[in-house]
Specification:
There is one protein chain. The protein is α/β, with parallel strands linked by helices and 421 residues long. The protein has helices at 2-7, 21-32, 57-66, 69-73, 114-124, 170-175, 244-254, 260-268, 284-287, 315-334, 351-386, 390-412, and strands at 9-17, 38-40, 52-55, 81-86, 92-97, 110-113, 130-131, 136-142, 145-150, 155-163, 181-193, 203-208, 211-217, 222-229, 275-281, 294-295, 298-300. It is built from twelve helices and 17 strands. The strands form three sheets. Strands 1, 2, 7, 8, 9, 10, 16 and 17 form an eight-stranded mixed beta sheet that branches. Strands 5-4-12-13-14-11-15 form a seven-stranded mixed beta sheet, with helices on both faces. This is FAD-binding domain-containing protein. Belongs to the 3-hydroxybenzoate 6-hydroxylase family. Residues 13-333 form the FAD-binding domain.
Length: 421
Amino acid sequence: MQIQKEDMEINEDIVIVGAGIAGLATSLALHRLGVRSIVLESSESLRTTGFALALWTNAWRALDALGVGDSLRQRSLRFTRFQAFSADSGLPTAEISLEANMKPVDYDSRCIKRQEIVETLEKELPPGTIKYSSRVVSIEESGLVKLVHLADKTVLRTKVLIGCDGVNSKVAKWMGLPKPVDANRSAIRGYVVYPEAHGFEPKFCAYFGGVRFGFLPCDDKSLYWFCTFTPSAVDYDEKIEGSPTKMKQFVLSLASNVSKEAYNILERSSLDSLYCAKLKLRAPWDILKRDNIVKNNTCLVGDALHPMTPDIGQGGCSALEDSIVLARCISEAIFLRKSIKVEKLEEGDDELYTRIKVGLEKYAKERRWRIFSLISTSYLVGLAQESNGKVISYLREKFLAQFTIETMLRMGDFNCGKLLK
């Protein structure tokens, strides 16, 4: 029996759990730096479900560092304007040109299909990097290595474990990180494909009020839309989540004050394109604890580390930032870059393990306050956008819409740096 157990064990230096955007980007960033990793994915094939996401300047800088930015730009439209409306009256409240001279030289913002992103990242990885049908059932520590137990009885022995497995991360749970908290809000998302060109301008339109709507063109034929709301503030029955027909009727009932063209987008949405989910976030103060980001050469990336509300559009963008910073820190540790300083090793210490530990701690230090500010800002912006009351409604229409747009642009103007060998 002992021989059989050993035959089931496989040694891998770096194991990444989850083949979503975060996991694929992290593996590709490591690959660009000459560091091998494997990615465990529980599904039988690449998960291309999901709709689209807005990517701001920081995300495109990260994608350029990965070497896939130009390819993705060819399949998306660059926003030229951001326009805000009141969800209560339907009237415009603010508008910003996204081509103004004050923007960064490399400013970019686009909405792109999730499928396009994951397929592009996957194609750049060496064959065999992703191990499909590899569901993690448990993790344990054995000296300096982690034992990752899979459903098929395979056991992976790894020096570095990276959790990219989303909001309900098994890796985060094993590390002891508190569960994400409920934001007391929900979101319904949809996607519309036109047989011919839809004719909409390449601009981001958003309606702020007790309910928040947004409409973003992805390319010449498709648009992505979202609706976020506070269930307790509207006539919402959770049972509609099992009925796409009722879900669509609910969204249309909330959209009485949006423009006719926006309403037509919602009405045109096919039932199989609708998705509803409760919004969750990581309590921002949990991010300030180093052991909640990195622990015993285990770390987290993307939603596994920092789920946040979508109010400034930084969930996917920040995951891409994480991947670049983490890969750079690991590479510096492995190849003894000068920026990774290791104190004198004690007798019996594993030098590589210790160097990587220092590298991961550097990653935690670099990301901690950036992530804290993203989670906090997103939550507060969402609270202001959807709160009711005469005073907050007046402030929102006069000041908050413009403030929200400027905040989204400011938080998106972040440079995670390049990948340098």
